[in-house]
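Checked the freezer inventory, then went back to the computational side. Two predictions to log before the end of the day. The first one is the construct we discussed on Monday; recording sequence and tokens without edits.
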Amino acid sequence: MKAGVILNYKLSEQEEVGHLDVLMVMFNNLLKMFDEVHVFSLHDHKADYDLGERIFVHPLPGKGPIGMLANVISARKIIQRERIDVVRMLATTKSAFIGIFSTLFMQIPIILSVHVHRALYQKQSGLALNPVFNFFVELWERFALWKADVVPVISYFIRDYAVGLGAAPDKIVLHRNFVDTELFRPMGRKPHGGVRIVFVSRLVGAKGADLLIRALGIASRKHSGLELYIAGGGPERSNLETLAQELGISEKVKFLGPVKHEKLPELFSECDFFAAPAQAGFVLNEALSCGLPVLAADIEWTKEIINEDVGALVPFGSPEAFAEGIETMLVRKAEWPGMGKAGRGLALHELSIEAYKNRELEIYRKALEL
């Protein structure tokens, strides 16, 4: 049997933020069940990724309406030629469009993962899209979820979102993000002056780095020893650097650029707590697994795992509210070791990579009715 996985982005973007390793967990795990894994990378021209034996990359470089139709035709030819048995899409928009239309009338089961609430993502990104455009995008999402055979979701929050769009509840499977607790383990806090906050993400609007910098500016008026490490690259970096300068805190904000995935535990050991001011991904689990307290916005799946035992939650969208969260963390400084220990326990017991791998294969068995 052969599995196809359609990404909504370039593999190179995942390399940039050091999270290609996360995808490799998925791909290699599928090789326990499938003879080959075929990866379709949108807007990507590169075809020579070396992901190992039996993992094949197919770039789909087309952009815009004509390009997307070309992508559908290319993907369909590959799916037919390789006799792919099941197709997995990792988003409800572009990858779902290609996955659904490239398999039309082919009797191939499709799996559609839902990771984000699209309207909330737009709000976090500062996007004000045309209401007519949004109307048709929502119609598409409803159609895609109706066509899907299995719908994995990362949280109860996203489950409710998918059901609200018409997904049949019996198709939905709760499939939380995971963490490799062997790689991401406590290394002990390395001594340093002041209080160091760390943020790790691709630098795009939805991740809220601008909100975090503004919050740091507010909190620094009262606490002079604060500093912020920002790890990751992306299109917003220059804007964020300018913002730090305008707020007069550029000396407190250190831009590290992309950090390799396996180097994150070392980075975490140099910091005091992790900040997730907006949408958070796998790195939140990784910070918890390394025993790092977490300050996070109370949105999406984050609010389902973060509580006072492991850190603090604050209302989303306000630099003032996040600055108050920083103040809360400082007041509770004596509790940081206990928070770190509780976070590590949470990772071990609820977010393990083995549980993820087992669920992943069960999702494919469900789609294939095995």
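The second is the one RB wanted added to the comparison set:
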Amino acid sequence: MRQKLGLAIALMKGARAILLDEPLSGLDPAAANDLVAVLRNTARGGTALLVSTHDIFRAKDVAHRIGIMRHGRLVEMVDPRTLTAPELEQLYLVHMAEHAA
């Protein structure tokens, strides 16, 4: 609820950039779809969105760019249009395995 309120305030103030940390966490599928629609419309309106998420499949559907981070460091930046969802998942898993050893 706090994230929704924060997003509503940022939208009402006309923020040019919004940072969201796991905005879909805890939402049911219908609420998640509604929020994604709001985020897409917000981005179309020119607002920059930076979203931190573990949901790489939703990120693929929504993002213009995806950065994969490991321990606070950016290890890969990709255009989601160039990868299928399974390819993106494999890329993520490779980065996590490389650094786990």
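For RB: The helical segments are 2-12, 29-44, 56-62, 85-100. The radius of gyration is 15 Å. Let me know if you want it refolded.
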